[in-house]
Write a structure and sequence with these properties.
single chain; alpha/beta; Rossmann fold; GMP Synthetase, Chain A, domain 3; 2 domains; six-stranded mixed sheet; four-stranded antiparallel sheet; 11 helices; 31% helix; 23% strand
């Protein structure tokens, strides 16, 4: 089930990708109104782009391009579109993506390969704890991937711990796919209702949407919290609607593996130049084999590192580190540069916090200000001081804290997205 190309040498992988790139450029130049205009405007001759490194001659595509010219990225007539999905819009206006039948098949292949990479196998039954409706791509991808892998899947959707446990106890899946913080809520519900989750059928989980590892691949606070309570195998995965591709850990759990047959990866600095090996940069991707809305040098906004050394699992593909943060979400607070995941790590470590939302605003002096809304059982000045002291010890800064009810927090977490709960709200002047 491991694609043959993922076992080849790095040189063979590069040559393979360059052949794929030639086909992608030809297809895009013929069918994409946006890229036709881009090539013409910048006098780009795609026939001169023979190597992956020569992609640097093409200006990157941004989220703003997708937002302003959404329909101009579509490469097929409307009667070939069989599914429409929408990005979550957590960093701006949502974008609609059009998928053809071939795109759905590619999506299924991607997720089947990714699940297999994590050691999941045909014949198992998985419980899907994320939505498959509301124009959301991830749930659909996992459903299609499980089917292609030859596995069963229980489409419970997100939330409703009671229904999740009822499905686990009735059908006995061996694995689940969901958001890490929701796994903690499942554990909490089980403890409150005397459910013996330690003896249930679940032995592993694919964790989506939240980071569970530190840059050195050890479990972060969130991952450790889950593991301490529920001793199941945790696998990290990273994907996005725009990429229609996932980077999922293998059993070695040393980064998300690249599928070179599906996507070309670059890491760029602030000036759109490739960063040296081992340094962090903005993940920039070129999709391969996408028919409906292919993307060329799309800047994802996510900051990470590449790992090039061969993996013990036998694959020679590059691996991505955990996402260090989103470029647009970088906060400059009182002389310190912070990404939201660093704040989440501190909050996840503090006992008594039930939920939180980090809100960033622009002060009267045009500086970044952090306000954290927290839901907890015991509101007190002493607990607020404990939280602030913890931030000072870990990050050398102390953001403002505002306690709120669980209901108020839920409203904030779901105010900006129909797809998923958010923990970060950016109200800064753009």
């Amino acid at each position: 089930m491991i694609p043959e190309i993922e076992l080849k040498s790095s040189q063979e992988i590069t040559l393979f990708q360059e052949k794929k790139l030639a086909h992608a450029l030809e297809y895009i130049s013929k069918n994409s109104p946006f890229y036709k205009n881009l090539f013409q405007k910048n006098k780009i001759d795609i026939l001169k782009i023979k190597q992956v490194k020569e992609l640097q001659h093409i200006p990157p595509t941004t989220k703003e391009d997708l937002q302003k010219h959404n329909d101009d990225f579509i490469c097929v007539p409307r009667n070939k579109i069989v599914d429409f999905v929408t990005t979550s819009g957590t960093t701006g206006k949502p974008v609609t993506f059009a998928l053809t039948e071939n795109d759905l098949e590619r999506l299924a292949y991607n997720e089947a390969t990714s699940l297999y990479c994590a050691g999941w196998s045909p014949g198992e039954v998985y419980q899907l704890m994320t939505t498959i409706d509301r124009r959301f791509l991830a749930g659909l991808a996992y459903f299609l991937g499980a089917r292609k892998l030859g596995s069963g899947i229980i489409r419970v959707g997100n939330g409703i711990p009671e229904l999740q446990w009822d499905s686990i106890n009735r059908i006995k899946p061996s694995a689940c796919i969901g958001v890490p913080s929701f796994l903690l809520k499942l554990i909490e519900y089980a403890d409150a209702n005397k459910i013996d989750y330690q003896s249930c059928s679940i032995t592993k989980a694919i964790c989506i949407g939240e980071i569970i590892r530190n840059p050195d691949f050890s479990l972060n606070i969130l991952g450790e919290k889950i593991k301490k309570k529920w001793d199941i195998e945790l696998y990290s995965t990273y994907a996005s609607t725009e990429m229609a591709t996932a980077f999922t850990e293998c059993r070695e759990q040393k980064g998300g593996h690249h599928h070179p047959e599906l996507i070309i990866v670059e890491l760029l600095d602030d000036y759109d130049n490739a960063v040296p090996d081992g340094e962090e940069g903005e993940l920039t991707i070129t999709t391969l084999g996408v028919e409906g809305m292919p993307l060329l040098r799309f800047k994802t906004g996510d900051i990470c590192k590449k790992h090039h050394e061969p993996c013990k699992c036998g694959r020679n593909t590059i691996r991505l580190s955990p996402i260090l943060g989103r470029k647009k979400q970088m906060i400059k607070y009182k002389g310190t540069t912070i990404y939201p995941p660093a704040l989440y790590d501190v909050l996840n470590e503090i006992e008594g916090i039930k939920g939180y939302v980090v809100e960033v605003n622009t002060s009267e002096l045009e500086t970044d200000e952090i306000l954290i809304y927290i839901s907890c059982l015991n509101v007190s000045e002493a607990f607020e001081k404990e939280i602030k002291d913890h931030f000072r010890a870990k990050l050398r800064v102390s953001p403002s804290i505002k306690f709120c009810s669980a209901d108020e927090l839920v409203k904030k977490q779901n105010a900006e997205s129909n797809h998923k709960t958010i923990n970060f709200i950016d109200n800064r002047n753009k």
